[in-house]
Amino acid sequence: MRYLLLLLITTTLVNATSCRETKKSATATAVTDSSKTGEMKIMIPNTYCYSNPGGKDSVYLKLEKFPNVVTGKLMYKLYEKDSNTGDIDGVLHGDTLIADYKFLSEGVTSVRQIIFLIKNDTAREGYGEMEERNGKMVFKNLQETDFTKSVLLNKTECSIQ
């Protein structure tokens, strides 16, 4: 019985100390490292920005690439049309970004799937037939995406937050 009581007290003290150290580390950093050490590390994304080189239409894309996800901003200012700006959240598959674009246009918040081909310091948006699923517009078939009809965006300095 004494052995069991001693084991219970020791386990409780070890857990309490471990939780206190983990809580201290969690307040100092933002993202958990997935390694087996249990250390907390701050993940700083690689940031890339792209825009078109002029003309009447402006498109600006800012990507923040983490190991498993890509976030960022996308802004369209199209000649004689309503502009829209929003956030993207997606995944990079090789040189292809597939993401959700949540944006505000004409006072309405919408979500649609976007796809960009990112190659050689350029980004090109893909287009294809879309349909509504669960309240957002998505591509019917990603394999049929056409990248030839979009504006070419060139890598540039980041200028929006």
Residue fraction in strands: over 45%
What structural class is derived from the secondary structure elements?
Answer: alpha+beta
Q: Helix fraction?
A: 10-25%
Coarse morphology: globular
> Any low-confidence stretches, pLDDT <50, length ≥5?
1-34
- Write down the CATH class of the largest domain: Mainly Beta
- The CATH architecture of the largest domain can be named as Beta Barrel
**Overall residue-averaged pLDDT value:** 79
Task: Tally the structural domains.
Answer: 2
Question: Based on DSSP secondary structure assignment, what is the total number of beta strands?
Answer: 12
Indicate the CATH topology of the largest domain: Lipocalin
List the total number of helices.
1
Lateral strand order in the biggest sheet: 3-4-5-6-7-8-9-12
N-end to C-end Cα span: 63 Å
The gyration radius over C-alpha positions equals: 23 Å
Tell me about the largest β-sheet. 8 strands, antiparallel, barrel
N-to-C SSE string, H for helix and E for strand: HEEEEEEEEEEEE
Describe the 3D structure.
It is a single chain. The chain has an eight-stranded antiparallel β-barrel. The model is unreliable at 1-34 (pLDDT under 50). The chain folds into two domains: 2-41, no CATH class; 46-156, Beta Barrel (Lipocalin). The protein is built from one helix and twelve strands; from the N terminus they run αββββββββββββ. A hairpin with a 6-residue loop joins strand 3 and strand 4. The chain has 161 residues and is an alpha+beta fold. The radius of gyration is 23 Å and the shape is globular. Helices cover 17% and strands 47% of the residues.
